[in-house]
Amino acid sequence: MSPNSWQTYFDSHAHEYMSQWFTQSWREEVDFLEQQLGLKPGKRILDVGCGAGRHTVELARRGYQVTGLDFSTGMLAEAKRRAQEAGVEVEWIHGDATQFTSEEKYDGAICMLEAAIGLIAVNGDPHEHDLAVMRAVCAVLNSGATFIVEVPNAIRMLRNLSEEAIANNEFDLERMVNTSRATWDTPEGVEKGIMTSARNYVPTELKLMLQLSGFSVNAFSGKSASHAPIELDDYTIIAIARKE
User: Is the pLDDT of residue 23 over 60?
Assistant: First the structure.
């Protein structure tokens, strides 16, 4: 796998990550996840690309045995702090989701927005990266376990795409990847930045990728806190998959 600049971004941005707009509905999102996973408290859940632990900690608070996996030491430090403040126990693992293995099996798994799937190295192979993550997750799940995946919505991206963006290499139509400069402020107030690439999906392709990895797809949703169908301008799409 190529070096992934997302790791640098998350390590440096961890201190302010939870201030972003899409991190604010985590309670409602966990309500949705809990319903879709259909597990009783005490069951084991893997949070792939757990980041600052917004879903991990809440799932642990609700009584599940949760493992948070992330390749960013900065984000894991924030997640551990949140878990300590909440008074919950979580197993934290620092590692690459494309290479994750476990002797123990999980009863369910999640990979939410800005987690592992879709966050590729600049000029990296989006198929190779994301299939590796999906197959690694499939290998550590019990048969019949549910895997919930949230990814950027390519339909929305294409509806807002310009020829200028393509000419400037901001979007690669063949790979469905947008490349942009991600910025953050240091604790001292200095702005930093790095180039990052994100893979975007249409539902049919996401379904095929999951099928190639050993899953069947039961349903799609356009919003992580509801059962609403996918709409053209939804920021993300969610697949509810099951290990066959």
Answer: no
In the chain, the largest separation of any two C-alpha atoms, in whole Å, equals 52
**Predicted local distance difference test score (pLDDT) of residue 20:** 63
Render pLDDT for 157-167 as a digit per residue (tens, 0 to 9). Answer: 999 999 999 99
- Angle ∠(96,85,76) on CA atoms, nearest 5: 15
pLDDT in tens, 79-102: 999 999 999 999 999 999 999 999
Per the CB < 8 A criterion, the answer to whether 139 and 122 are in contact is: no
169: phi then psi, degrees, rounded to nearest 5: 60, 30
Q: Which of 45, 159, 39, 50 is nearest to 113 (CA)?
A: 50
Flag the least confident range among 31-45, 73-87, 188-202, 229-243. 188-202
Q: What is the DSSP annotation of 88-147?
A: ---EEEES-GGG---SS-EEEEEE-TTSSTTEE-TT--HHHHHHHHHHHHHHTEEEEEEE
The torsion angle over the Cα atoms of residues 150, 27, 43 and 149, rounded to 10 degrees, is 0
- Count Cα atoms within 13 angstroms, Cβ side, for 104: 11
Question: C-alpha 58: how far from its chain's center?
Answer: 16
Q: Which residues contact 120 (CB under 8 A, 6 or more apart)?
A: 4, 126, 129, 130, 177, 197, 198, 199
